[in-house]
Amino acid sequence: MSAASRRPSPSASDAVISLRNVSYRLPGGRVLLEGLTLEAARGETLVLLGRSGSGKTTTMRLVNRLLEPSAGEVLVEGRATPEWDAIQLRRHIGYVIQETGLFPHFTIERNIALVPSLEGWPPERIRERVAELMELVGLPAEMASRYPRQLSGGQRQRVGVARALAADPPILLMDEPFGALDPITRADIQREFRALQKRLAKTILFVTHDLREALVLGDRIALLEGGRLMGLYTPAEFQRADEPLAAAYLAAFRAGDATGAG
Amino acid sequence: MGLFEFFTQHRQEVLDLTAEHLVLVGAAILCAVLIGLPLGVLTTRWRWLGRPVLGGANVMQTIPSLALLGFLLPVPWVGERADRLAIVALTMYALLPILRNTAAGINGVDPSVVEAGRAMGMTPRQILFQVQLPLAMGVILAGVRVATVICVGTATIAAAVGAGGLGEFIFRGVAMVNNQLILAGAIPAAALALLADLLLGRVEKFFQPGV
Asked: Is A185 helix (H, G, I), strand (E, B) or coil?
């Protein structure tokens, strides 16, 4: 595959994404991220868990160079992001956000085909790939010619995942992708996504504020607060954690399960 | 003589002046789109350009049309020919709605859609042509429609400098205190404005798939 041939030589560590002492400040001086050091290994799903303003989305945007760090280094496949061509880097990394990120004037087929057509794949190959992906994410083939507005929230989210996977990128960034869905649809799509993840073995950075989602989908959970890393746990460790913040999340989670709100 | 007889007797002249009118409006709108669209896009790229450009277009709009023709008359090249003069003046009037709607349309595109395009590795040019412009097309065309309707009315003033158009009848009618002659110019002009409004409204709808 072309994605594999573009991949630079592996670095000493097996980290596909690594942040080294990264800080990010707004031009006004407000600090969004402070001294963050974090690594995601190949094939791992690393969940960034935190409240709004904790810096989780900022972290993600640093990885595909929508932002550049004020201090420290972000490495993707062993290469610092400024050394990458920004466009190449982003086509190398799948990106899923809440449903609003689909192009409303593109059909489902064109939405999914976005990166392959930017990369100049022949039309025949694109059509095959789109059909393959729609099946993979569980969308009926006849939806190919519809527009995003004509689909339900859950279907749109599947389109979002299919679009991110289209050019078979080794890395996925997912920013609260299932946040806008109703609880039942969300549980369904999470379960399917978990299965998909095992098959595809992508390196995934997954942003959420929902502890349940973090526990279900994450191989490891990075807990962020106020732009700092407060702890790094496996789901099992998280449930035993006695650090105040992790404990607070667990307490809120267990008491009445209000985590699905917002 | 009734208005109907006037139209049947002067059919050729009415048609000629209507055609002239359409040419003036068409040329002016074409120029205004060719200038206003890129300029409007630029103001969304370089924010500092927004104020002076829109301000300038606003000022043009406030100059009374007869005075504008007067101001332009001594300008080299522009003042040399009557139709050229009229088209330049009309272009200046048509500019504001097109400029403003282009900027508003592009700025109004959902930021998360543009962000998604960026994150998927689209170049700024691809984002502009594949995402922003298509999504702003409805608003931009609404601007063109407003500009055209205004222009059809304003173009009657072209007759004042001898550039022809349906204003010929109106000016003649005013000079001769002949209401019928005024109506002979005003009615086709109004009909043209309505027709343009209708047609461009259709075009607008056509350009909004899935939205």
From this structure: helix
Q: How far is B134 from chain A (nearest CA, A)?
A: 8
* Closest by CA position to B121, among listed A26, A176, A167: A167
Report yes or no: A74 at the B interface, CB cutoff 8 Å.
Answer: no
Tokens of B72: 């332009």
On whether any CB of chain B is under 8 Å from the CB of A106, the answer is yes
What pLDDT is recorded for position A256? 60
* A-B contacts at Cβ under 8 angstroms: 68
The rounded Cα A21 to chain-centroid distance in angstroms is 21
Contact residues, A window 44-73, toward B, CB-based 8 Å cutoff: 64, 66
User: pTM of this prediction?
Assistant: 0.83
Q: Does B206 reach chain A within 8 Å, measured CB to CB?
A: no
Phi, psi of A206 (to 5 degrees): -120, 120
**Average pLDDT of each block of 10 consecutive residues along chain B (211 residues)?**
81 91 96 96 91 89 88 88 92 93 94 92 95 94 94 91 90 92 92 94 78 54
Distance set, CA B17 to CA B23, B85, B140, B168 (Å): 10, 17, 29, 8
